[in-house]
Amino acid sequence: MKTFYATTPIYYVNDLPHIGHIYTTVVTDVATRFRRLAGEKTRFLTGTDEHGQNIEKAAAAQGITPIQLADRVVERYRELYRTFEIKNDDFIRTTEARHRLGVEALIARIEASGDLYTARHEGWYCASCEAFYTEKELEAEKRCPVHGTPTAWESEENVFFRLSKYAAPLLEHYERHPEFVRPESRLAEMVSFVEGGLMDLSVSRSKVKWGIPFPGHPGHVVYVWLDALANYITALGFGSSDADRYREFWDHPDAERVHFIGKDILRFHTVYWPAFLMSAGLPLPTTVWTHGWWLRDAKKVSKSVGNVVRPDQLVADFGADSLRYFLLREMAFGQDANFSDEAFLTRYNADLANDLGNTVSRVAALCRQSFGGTPSELPREGEVFAAAAAAEADWRAAMGECQFNRALEAVWKLLTAVNGHVVSQEPWKIRKEEGADSARLHRVLAAAAEGVRLCAVMLSPFLPAIGRRIFETFALPAADPAPADLAWGRLPLSKRMPEAPALFPRVDASVYLKENAAMTETPNPGGPAAPAPAPPADDRIAIEDFQKVRLRTAKIVAAERVPKSSKLMKLQVDLGDEQRQIVAGIAGVYEPETLVGRNVVVVANLKPAKLMGVESNGMVLAASVGEAGAPVLLDVPADVPPGSKVK
Ligand code: ME8
Fold first, then answer.
1. How confident is the model over 4-27, as pLDDT tens digits?
2. pLDDT digit string, tens, across residues 465-508
3. How far apart are CA 643 and CA 647, in angstroms?
4. Model's pTM, two decimal places?
5. 296 Cα nearest atom in ligand 1
6. Residue nearest (by alpha carbon) to ligand 1 atom 29
7. Helix%, strand%, coil% for the chain, nearest 5
8. Which residues of 533-544 are buried (b: 16+ CB within 10 A; e: fewer)?
């Protein structure tokens, strides 16, 4: 049996967790619950990243020590994990002794490879990023390309890591192991980044005090990323006398080493981390799964205070499972998604209350009314049986590919089949005509109940608490399912069923939003009431008008910021039969390296124009989100060839 080791990144403790942090952990929790359900030996790690200048500063601003701040935030994470039923096997803090020992052991191996040297490091430094930038990378007035805040010229004697030496080995690794970075488009991004050349990396800091002392360099601490990335092995006992877990889950031919991260930290995990490991002669992660970003409904972004509070409110009102479901159903793994209360309430009412909740209570009520419990005979064929087999195959394949929304769709197909079966078989009629002892009635309702049970088993990685309640409803133990529970035929027969309250009480979305408006909207206190909207004018166009616009899919092959502009990005795009340059107003939101390899939609027949002196031949389509109109690129699936018509 394969051992599976899944880790999320470890979280910075300079801020309280928000929906994006929760997502990374819930994704890993769902993936590991699935692997356990598939019978694999699994270990799941998460934790906190507690060193560095930002934490030093955040603590100072609150008048406390860094470790006091860390303790406070760690407690919040632990509480959140309990609420969300995160089943992690370990939680590492980078301030623990076991971590320091492991970091020291890793640095000793890197040093032994001759990959460390001392040199003066000068450059423009962004304190928020804890990173240096070259002049070329900076925005106007030497501002940080990520934060837009002024950078400072820093000069210090540092320990350097020979990252440049690993460009060729990394490219070879990407080539031989395309599964190393998933989804595929992210791999393309990293290939082009490494092909652009790698500079050696400074891995010690003398200006920062809050960190692990750099071995052999008094007055220096370990660069926060070298420190943090090492957690994946230090938590397994690397560098300690008790390294059995390390040997089982990391340094073993059968071990699958998997990280789940957001796209903002892709470079650290797929360039720096494997380079450190190569230098130390240690195995690399098998796969780094990279998800997109949760964008807030812009209404709320502009009232930033509400952002952090929202998940707590939604959990209090709808339960953690509902939020777990929403996060995994709404976001196609790898792509960005928008978080809004409206979308959440729609999914809650339509998917959970209506589809899932109603099906469960309908089938349970029919069983209870007919037999006071579960039926006495279960068929091993029929429409529900066939639908269950098909759903399980689709669910398994999608889960293996981290296509969580597809996996949920597969379960919903089975729910639809169960409903269809009940509607077409009309068990209420059978009971009336043949009585409650009818063998046919038992078989019809048993197939429906078994279909519902299997839905609950497949849903349990996503909705663990709801899964247990469904099992209880059908006279099963309220426990996480075992691999054998995925087989048809585990419904207990002729067992009394308890009365069960509705799983998801329906909510009137408009009333809810109105009552909770204080959290989501900034009212215009004391200001005049907004004027009533004008009736819409008829501005519809004829199909011929639309056909004048030639929309095509295109692949971004290169991206760079337009100098002196904070908004404009110069893109080279491949349209299948030609390559051209387009300037897009997306630089305020996207980093150039995150764009390469992306498939987008472009207007192909626009007259050329010059934007800040740079020629643009077309336009890239992006949704304009919220009041601020933040651009969100429209994603095209990777398998659609560049140049395809969009109509
Ligand atoms: O990056 N949408 O910690 P972190 C989706 N300590 N995911 C988001 C997000 C959003 N809006 N905002 C944050 C760190 N995340 C480092 C990691 S690993 C050795 C060190 C995700 O607390 C982000 O992409 O800033 C990352 O995966 C995780 O939350 C932790 O972010």
1. 999 999 999 987 788 888 999 999
2. 999 999 999 999 999 999 999 999 999 999 999 999 999 999 99
3. 12
4. 0.79
5. 11
6. 21
7. 45, 20, 35
8. eeeeeeeeeeee
